[in-house]
Amino acid sequence: DAEITQSPRHKITETGRQVTLACHQTWNHNNMFWYRQDLGHGLRLIHYSYGVQDTNKGEVSDGYSVSRSNTEDLPLTLESAASSQTSVYFCASSESGTPKQYFGPGTRLTVT
Amino acid sequence: TQLLEQSPQFLSIQEGENLTVYCNSSSVFSSLQWYRQEPGEGPVLLVTVVTGGEVKKLKRLTFQFGDARKDSSLHITAAQPGDTGLYLCAGERGGSYIPTFGRGTSLIVHP
Question: How far is it, in rounded angstroms, from Cα B62 to Cα A5?
């Protein structure tokens, strides 16, 4: 069965360190997304991609970057982790031409 | 300002009760999705509505899209503990296929 996976599921890091969160999907979807979920804010879009070599900023992109070298993967990098980036991060994918998204299980990141 | 307002924010009810969750906006949406998220997991799509006035049923769940495509509701009949979770609505505008999420309604159904 097709799926979308994230790793690691939990991560603790220190302020200032670079962190990369992995997202891998086997749906063969062109569109991939990264969100963060915080109490009181819901799901907020960080970055998204419509296909290989395409990346776009979402509403809360500062301090984050992504790259899309193949269809299956969209890693999210925190260049210099800050305590404000402590959150639960979700990756999602969708087919072209539809807003219906399939979500991964999430990565809980703690920045100390 | 939140584009999509969900109410109530929290709901705690007994098994067998009925409930309605609302998703409201001043904007018109091309489509609207409802997701359910259980603790420690990602959201899972329940339904998509695209036509004003549309009603969709999923077992005990009834979803309605407003006539003007600005709001939606989710009604659960005879709630069960397995319905416990965070219910999120998400609206998509203008053909971008990027949904904007509401903050969610957290539902607890007690046995």
Answer: 30
